[in-house]
Amino acid sequence: MRYTGHLDLFRSWERTFRRSGLPLAYSQGFHPQPRLNLACALPLGISSECEILDAWLECTLPLPQINQAIEVVLPPGLEVLGMDIIESQAPALQTQVTSAIYRITFLDDIPDLDERLQRINSADHLPRQRRDKSYDLRPLIEEILPVPTFKGGNQQLRLQLAAREAATGRPEELLDEIGIKFEATRVHREELIFRS
Predict the structure, then answer these.
(1) Phi and psi of 81, rounded to 5°?
(2) pLDDT tens track of the chain, all 196 residues?
(3) Domain 95-194 = CATH 3.40.50
(4) Domain boundaries in the chain?
(5) Pairing relation of β-strands 185-194 and 46-48?
(6) Alpha carbon separation from 24 to 18, 57, 148 (Å, rounded)
């Protein structure tokens, strides 16, 4: 589902809940919206194994019943890995995410990858532009490490980027900074890190 956008993913979950027959809660007003929230929107072209969804139901149901109702109507490519009941007064998911961990696989060999990473790691500032605003990419990079690979395997990086409300690092911007086209990679989000 690498090429499913955030809004399309949201609509997939909305359809899934509607087909499941679960009593999904809706907002009040003239145009009620389903009470669903995805933590940390996934950029187009990036796959993931750790997306987290908040869903409000009209009544409390046992988790196995919810899971069973959802599993039978899930579209291909979506899978529920776990479920929990959260207090309705709990803070919004997005406000609790602090960073995201990605694995980047390079489709072609990059002979000078270590030198490029060393330049990033030793830089005090990495000035960038995003939508006519200047920002510093460097403080958004929490960790960047090469992943050991088997002989003949594709080079990989493990990347931890800030994912806070006002400061979010993007893998494609880091790739641009080290001179590698996003299209020459496969980027996979492995984990979202939450406030403890």
Answers:
(1) -95, -20
(2) 677 888 888 899 999 999 999 999 999 999 999 999 988 888 889 999 999 999 999 999 999 999 999 999 999 988 999 999 888 888 888 888 999 999 999 999 999 999 999 999 999 999 998 888 888 999 999 999 999 887 778 999 999 999 887 788 999 999 999 999 999 999 999 999 998 7
(3) no
(4) 6-90, 95-194
(5) parallel
(6) 8, 4, 45
Total residue count of the chain as it appears in this document: 196
pTM: 0.88
